Amino acid sequence: MKKLGIIIVATLSFMGAVAAEPAVSTPTVQAKTKVSVVSKKSMSTTKYQIDQSKAKGAYAYSSSLKKKAFKLSSGHNTIFYAKSQETVKVGKKTRVYYYVKSSSNSKLAGWVWHGYLIKPILSNSQVQKLVASGQDLNPSSTILNQPSAFYSTYRSYLRKEFNMTGPLTPFNDHKARVYVADPDLKTYATKAMGVWNKALGRTVFVSGTASHHELVIDAKPSKEWDGLNDGSHLYLSSTALNDKSYMDSVADTPEIRALYNQYESVAEAYKDATNGSAEKKAYLAQGHTLYDQLIAAQKAAAPSASSYWEGVTVHELGHSLGLDHTPYLTDIMYAETSDDGFSSSVNGKYNWNLPKDPNDSRRETPTLSSRDVNRAKLGMKLGYW
Ligand SMILES: [Zn+2]
């Protein structure tokens, strides 16, 4: 599946390059196409890099595009200097070429169609500064608006810094067809797909059929998880779905966490107290009171089942977009710990056992945070969907 994602991305950019490429890339075309230089001028020295996502299979040429000088793919990560440009008529089309030269490799010099050149992407240290100056795990608009060469160069660094998993569900033209196998889940699925489509401003998840789909949504019994996504199947736990009292136990607010911690420490103290002592009895009574308060607080904060299950589905669809978990309660991709024990642990920026926003309540509704949305947008830039 990983492989399919990568092949699709490569094919798309290759097709784009063919559409934009001047008709001088093959000797046959070159021989038949009349090339004449219309004008030539010098320019102030400018640094460029080759946009390898567009320049696949393309060349730099000698003067008047007579001969191939070098294959542009051999100038990967090379900084070129341009000092002059010429306007060339290729058949009936007018093209602007820049004469570029590498300062480190004299063989890399020649005329390159300007559409294949981009301003140099950020350096390693610039990228690190940019990531460090932004919100934790939240790609800024600067990071989200770089040329495609930036994402191919810093692919693994960005994956780790923003807790991304890489491609999971295979997407086709930035879309995945979703087939809901269990009709009881139809409403949750439709709502959750709509949440992502709206937030991303495009139709990412579309309805599929039993024979045409990239992702199946179904129910499966489990006491371990509420939702699970293996790339081709998104499961909701039928055990939890069928448990009428389940919503009474899922709420997670600062009050509930405080009561839980107090209850835990009283339980510890009870264990340590001498058997039969007045102290032990007092701890027992205190423990009962805290337990009742805890249950009451959870019931009071219990989400509606539809809201909760839509939220779980949105979270699981987030995995399809290549998102791993975060330690922020207000993110739909929140998880209590970076290593939850039954699925693979987060191979990301850092490990955690406590939320980073402990004064907030866990999101039990199908709502996305800006961090969720920006990470998903980064997933598209990285070719995950
Ligand atoms: Zn998850």
Give an overview in words.
33% of the residues are buried. The longest helix is centred in the C-terminal third of the chain and has 23 residues, at 278-300. The protein has helices at residues 2-20, 27-32, 124-133, 141-144, 148-153, 155-161, 186-200, 238-241, 254-272, 278-300, 305-320, 370-381, and strands at 35-50, 59-61, 68-71, 80-90, 93-102, 109-113, 117-118, 176-180, 205-207, 215-220, 227-229, 233-237. With 385 residues, it is of the alpha/beta class.
SSE order and pairing:
Elements: H1 2-20, H2 27-32, E1 35-50, E2 59-61, E3 68-71, E4 80-90, E5 93-102, E6 109-113, E7 117-118, H3 124-133, H4 141-144, H5 148-153, H6 155-161, E8 176-180, H7 186-200, E9 205-207, E10 215-220, E11 227-229, E12 233-237, H8 238-241, H9 254-272, H10 278-300, H11 305-320, H12 370-381
Parallel strand pairs: 8-9, 8-10, 10-12
Antiparallel strand pairs: 1-4, 1-7, 2-3, 4-5, 5-6, 11-12
Task: Write a brief structural summary.
The protein has helices at residues 2-20, 27-32, 124-133, 141-144, 148-153, 155-161, 186-200, 238-241, 254-272, 278-300, 305-320, 370-381, and strands spanning 35-50, 59-61, 68-71, 80-90, 93-102, 109-113, 117-118, 176-180, 205-207, 215-220, 227-229, 233-237.
Shape: elongated
Instruction: Spell out the CATH superfamily of the largest domain.
Output: Collagenase (Catalytic Domain)
Q: From the 3D coordinates, which CATH architecture of the largest domain would you assign?
A: 3-Layer(aba) Sandwich
Give the helix level as a range of percent: 25-40%
* Quaternary organisation of the protein chains: single chain
Bound ligands: zinc ion
| Beta-strand content estimate | 15-25%
How many separate domains make up the residues? 3
What order do the SSEs take from the amino end to the carboxyl end, as H and E?
Answer: HHEEEEEEEHHHHEHEEEEHHHHH
* CATH topology group of the largest domain: Collagenase (Catalytic Domain)
Quote the distance from N terminus to C terminus.
Answer: 12 Å
Catalogue the unreliable spans: 1-21
Query: What profile does the largest beta sheet have?
Result: 5 strands, antiparallel
Secondary structure class reads alpha/beta
- Strand order of the biggest β-sheet: 6-5-4-1-7
> How would you state the average pLDDT, rounded?
89
Can you tell me the CATH class of the largest domain?
Alpha Beta
